[in-house]
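Hey everyone, long-time lurker, first post.

I ran two proteins through the pipeline my lab uses and got sequence/structure pairs for each. Pasting them in order. The first:
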Amino acid sequence: MQLLLASHVLPWLSSLWSPQSQAQLQPTACDSLSLPSIPGIKILSLTSHEVTHYHPPSTPDTDSIPLINTTSTTTPPDLSFCNVTIHLTHSPSDHDTVYISLWLPPASAWNGRFQATGGGGLAAGYFPGPQVSALVEGYATGATDGGLTLNNTIEPQTGSWALRPNGTLNTALLTNYAHRSIHDLAVIGKTLTAQFYGRPANHSYFKGCSTGGRQGYFAAALYPNDFDGIVAGAPAIHLPHLFSELFWPPLLMTHSVVPRGCVLEAFRKKLVEVCDPLDGAVDGLISGYWPKKCVQGFQAGGLVGSVVECAEGNRTEKVVVTDAHAQLVQRILDGPRLGDGRKLWHAMAPGASFKGTAGTAVVNGSVVVQPFFPVIGWAKNFVFQDPAYDVMGMGFEDFDEAALVSIEKFQGLLGSEQHYLGEFRDAGGKMLSWHGLADELIPPLGTIGYREGVQEDFGGPEAADQFYRLFLAPGVGHCGGGDGPAPVDALAALVRWVEEGVPPETLAAEGVDGKGEKVTRALCPYPAQLVYDGHGDVKKAGSFRCEVLTDE
């Protein structure tokens, strides 16, 4: 069975924004907000009340914001907003209860824009951190759980929401997760924003990373009129294929050797040492993207026999690198393959931390595998449809089956190859995407491949650049982190593009390197790459230029 995506958008949406309806709008009190009848949606409840003197947490609750590396934001002493909570379902047969949260700042603090926020991992969203950031910047902002918390009874990262009690796939929630809930959020969010302020938002935006990045890409392709601009970081746009890449290292370790994290880190540092000079600047970052040349020039066996000092509590233990360690690393860098040798997907990015897909930990004196948690839920509930399935007991033949079933079942719903951005372009939409070149979870090559497909669709890089730009960030991990400079404010650059017609020729980025020193870059729009000028300070953006190079 293959699950297919929706092939239409709701035609009634445009009627909400007719000049006649706009002229009739008057501001509505927070506690008097209501929703009109919406085809395909049944509103179960709507509650709204004023919140004053709200103090957001100084540090985001990372347990509730999986896969999204949110940096701390300076906030005012307190925030005030109209807090709206909507519960909805799509049909009696769907049995879904979807939560939508809207935070609407006072009219005096509103910047005239609406911003929808995305999810991470197997969660559709509903994280407080992104909403706080949007509210601080003056946006009317919204989030949705897509119904994946099963009415606040489960943690969506388990993936258990994908199955009905009888063991069949919950196609309604899968559709919500794929694309429908972000569309619902756009429609309801913009409707209530207009009602509260007495006028529609001047512009509407979406911002997300990882699953949120995928949601942004899907919104552009399937609902081209929902957002004027989309920021999509590290997009999980090839989700059915990602299972093989994410579970490949745990599979290999389970059937060979389980190294300590410090041993894998030693291999990562050596890989960076080999690949770093390829861009002309020895700065601890892999700035150019030549994965084939990089990996081919790296011999993991060169570390065999060396000694790695591993911190273990209050003591340091010396570990000798073995041939088994080297063979494991080489296979991880080669990427997931079927038993017959066919390549399934891209390997992890050169220079990325092994902690993402090849995490290990010392438990009671033994080194054990710590797989990326959502991939376990994906295998159990999505692929095998068996919550009791022993994923860590999977053999190579089982892995082959799981990888192929993942693609066969979900490519139609959660793949990206069939998505065309022509309607998004024609609607005047702009998408700014970025991806860390040291992403430890999602290979940047997948996003690069998507961008190249768009270039083919529209006649080359310049044509694609008119509405969709991709920036690659050297040394940056998944949605942030790592030793490289991440985008400082991609949304501000997008707003200038949408509202002033000024496309981002570069994207300002900052970070802290492995030595704790500040690093800046002006990231290049793909296919251009950062090239060192040969003499400037490698920590400063001005020492690099953008140039289109070839992987030779």
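...and the second, right after it:
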Amino acid sequence: MRSALFNAYYWVLSIFYGLSAALSALLPGRRPIAFALRLYSRRMIWALRTFAGISIELKGQENLPQGAFIIAAKHHSWGDGFVMFAHVDNLSFVTGDHLEKFPLVGAILKKFGAIVVDSCGGPEARRALSQSAAQVAAEGRRILIYPEGHLAAPGERFRYRTGVYHMSRDFGLPVVPVATNLGCFWRQTDKKKTPGMATIEFLPPLPQDLSKAEFMARMEDVIETRTNQLIAQARGEPVRPSVLVEWNGRENVAATHTKAVA
């Protein structure tokens, strides 16, 4: 019943704010559309708590630098994006071009200043990412990116992509990793919600003097390790290693990431 109430509210609010954002896109500047998106996100967090019984504990905000920086986050569900936009000022985000197939969404993304890249990746996507990120970085905005490029179920991980490293290197931006266990309560796009206290945690910024290989290994390690710990806390279980899965068919292709801790 609680999930049904939230889902109904979710779609009503999404349609309302989607139309509001489309109208805001006609106004000069990005401030009106940014205001609409932040208000929408805050209403969704309220609805999660009120209807679905999911409260959000936000930790590690002292790790957020001043000025422009990159947020490299674990992506468990649609809900983690709401938390970012509700609590991080002057935020842009990286998204796949698949969203542009929805009516009005392309115009909204363009007006908001989102960084839209080819969902299939490759050299062209990297070039587009670099060009769009250059403008966002010059404006002093923060950039939200999901390094795996997909929603991951709790306990799973996808291959981490290198776009975060290239943005950090090219524009000298610090990278703040983010871990979460929100998927234990709102898993990916599931309609069913499980009441409880979810945690989203900003971790200390990564060192900026690492090689590409060192950076990618460090980023994946800190995000997955802390995420696995938060999942274990939510479930009252020992820490279990995350499993690498492929996007095509989501088959298990590798065994472990971190050692299990009792």
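Reply from user beta_strand_b:
Welcome! Quick read of the second one: Residues 54-236 form a domain with the Glycerol-3-phosphate (1)-acyltransferase fold (CATH 3.40.1130.10). The longest strand covers residues 196-202.
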